[in-house]
Design brief:
It contains 2 helices and 3 strands; from the N terminus they run E-E-E-H-H. Strands 1-2-3 form a 3-stranded antiparallel sheet, with no helix packed on it. The protein has helices spanning about 40-45, 55-65; strands at about 1-5, 10-15, 25-30. The chain is globular, with a radius of gyration of 12 Å. It is α+β, with helices and mostly antiparallel strands.
Length: about 70
């Protein structure tokens, strides 16, 4: 999930598990594939500057179908 955008060529990604809120992964935009999925609960919290927990991010990603093993199909 994209956590923040620096306004240039980089976005910061989190998943609440390996990449937590305190250590987001810096990625070039050209290496990120858009999914078209928006996590509204998380987006609203970020927009309103409300505290966000890693567990909320994990839960939202799982509910959106982005589980740990979605690539392998397990």
């Amino acid at each position: 999930m994209v956590y923040s955008f620096d306004g240039g060529n980089f976005a910061y990604l989190i998943d609440g598990d390996l990449r937590k809120l305190d250590r987001p992964k810096k990625k070039k935009l050209m290496h990120i594939e858009p999914t078209g999925c928006r996590l509204d609960d998380i987006a609203n919290k970020l927009a309103n500057h409300e505290p966000l927990m890693d567990a909320e991010v994990r839960k939202a990603l799982l509910q959106a179908g982005f589980g740990k093993n979605t690539k392998t199909g397990e």
